[in-house]
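Allow me, if you will, to draw on your knowledge of protein folds for a short while. I have a record of one protein: its chain in single-letter code and its fold written as discrete structure tokens. I remain grateful for any guidance, and I place the record below:
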Amino acid sequence: MAYDHELADRVRELLSGVDGVREKRMFGGLAFLVHGNMAVAASSEGGLLVRVEPDEGERLLGEGVQPMVMRGREMRGWLRVDAAVVGTGPRLREWVTRGVSYAAELPAKD
């Protein structure tokens, strides 16, 4: 399944004024990186992947928000947010801001 292009466009619009943002196709989806650190992605499985502070990940779990699992292994510091959860502008903004804020705190890779 390809990523949701409409969701990617909505994320792109939210990030239009953010310094150091770059897009990169990854894992069948479209990732948005901040100074080389992946922050959020329109997932090939639908919805949004969001990078979070690893110690906060469990607290953020809930209906429509699960740990990201890759090759059977839970990826600490990454959450999968269902499309229904980010269906409204304010909710998408909340999750994108969370991912971008954390990625911006990391040492730059580019």
Notes: The longest strand covers residues 73-81. The beta strands are 21-26, 29-34, 37-42, 48-51, 65-70, 73-81. The CA atoms of residues 11 and 96 lie 7 Å apart. The chain is about 30% helix and 35% strand.
